[in-house]
Write a structure and sequence with these properties.
Mean pLDDT of chain A: 91
Number of strands of chain A: 9
Low-confidence stretches of chain A: 1-9
Shape of chain A: elongated
Number of helices of chain A: 7
Oligomer: homodimer
Largest interface: A-B, 40 and 39 residues
Largest sheet of chain A: 7 strands, mixed
DNA sequence: TCAATAGTGTCTATGAGACACTATGAG
DNA sequence: CTCATAGTGTCTCATAGACACTATTGA
């Protein structure tokens, strides 16, 4: 690239200013069946293998590479640390507390992403990766995670607890208006399946008739019907 | 601070990774009277005095200082470059195109802020600072600014045009539901003043009776009334 | 008097919430 | 048959949009 040498030559302006380390963190969300079999809005955590906070569960994240785009850094992180591909990260917020990382001055750009349910289920047995349901306890205790963490861990490292809160709020906000903005259901689905998904995300039961009428307008009805379940065959739909 | 020496000693982890320069840019919005006297949603631009893009109009911005918080960097920028104080910046998005700045790899965290109308008017005559109304042209031409820039300038430097678009969209989104989330009206005001404000932001006329009923619910009615205008004295309100 | 405004009444269309009802298929 | 479900009908209530009307002030 011709631009690189030009960039280097004018670099002097920039050297006057201190540069923070910049990382990306990703809150990967999905809705996966509980041990009971009920759907739960969950976040994907990884067990840290690096020096700091080693052994703890945290959101996947990594430092940016030279002239990398944020979205690419997120995709690389997910590929390298969780073996997930094809997601589309969205920016959530920048975490800028200078004391958030004991190693020094580190900014983190928090991202949100969603993985289709079937892929999430397929990943569930991978070692070092876990899907943790969000805890729906009212009167949430300060300094405690929204997640019921394994191994007796109380909180997530860095400011990941706050990122989780922002991510859950954002997913809920998005799923209030649209059927499946995050693409959690792949292919076709019944209205019941979509409602169970929304109920898991919202954390409460939804009115079946109101829900149907609100969603059907935004869906494409297929000719196919689901068979083999209790009751009359349910029509299949897909998103636009 | 005890933390600093500890941070330095563990700095080695971080030195493996390249660090971008990080800047903040602010889209400062207000509603100021046009040359016609009609209210216009406007952005505050400054005339650049630094080496790069010198002489061009742009959003105020600056590089972060060591271990500074983003909000503080924005406040410092506004204080130093525009002599404005007391604002509360909100994050909009991170601009991460590696080629956005010819000098090198620079991330910019775009922010949004609003200044009360009376303060904006008082600033209007300050040299090197200008309030530019957003252009409401339908079928917006690609590669052209949303703003009618002075001195025949066509576009804003860096990716400031995109930041302006995001800022205007965000201000409009916020003012759809609430009376005055940005605190543009200081003190008390009539429903008519509030409606003129909303009309300037939305860029279209609003129904007077529907608007009154939607807003009055969210306002505190005062005992005072405005005098000296045409028509019956209008009741004054304030935000909660 | 006129123009512009305040503030309210009212009609209609829309949609959410809620309850009920019939139809359908698996076990 | 029983049960869980699909899908629709319908009633109520709240609200947006629209139009109209009276009252009140300055010019």
């Amino acid at each position: 690239m011709a631009g690189v040498s030009k960039n280097r030559s004018r670099r002097s302006d920039l050297d006057e200013f201190p540069r923070p380390s910049v990382a990306v963190d990703v809150a990967v969300c999905s809705v996966v069946p509980d041990s009971d079999g009920t759907n739960q809005l969950s976040l994907m955590l990884i067990k840290r293998r690096t020096a700091i906070h080693c052994g703890q569960w945290s959101l996947p994240g990594s430092f940016m590479r030279e002239r990398e785009r944020l979205a690419d850094a997120v995709k690389r992180t997910l590929r390298d640390k969780c073996d997930v591909e094809g997601l589309e990260p969205h920016q959530l917020e920048v975490c800028d507390d200078p004391d958030r990382d004991d190693r020094g001055w580190v900014l983190s750009v928090a991202h949100l992403d969603t993985v289709p349910i079937d892929r999430a289920v397929a990943m569930a047995d991978r070692s070092g990766v876990a899907w943790i349901p969000v805890r729906e306890r009212i009167g949430h205790i300060a300094g405690q995670s929204m997640l019921e963490l394994p191994d007796g861990q109380e909180t997530l490292p860095f400011d990941h607890d706050e990122i989780v809160r922002a991510a859950v709020a954002e997913v809920r906000r998005r799923y209030q208006a649209r059927p499946d903005p995050g693409g959690l259901l792949s292919g076709s689905f019944t209205v019941l399946e979509l409602r169970r998904l929304h109920e898991a995300i919202a954390g409460r039961e939804l009115q079946k008739d109101t829900f149907r009428r609100a969603m059907a307008r935004q869906l494409v009805g297929l000719r196919r019907h689901e068979k083999g379940t209790v009751g009359p065959p349910a029509r299949l739909y897909r998103t636009r």
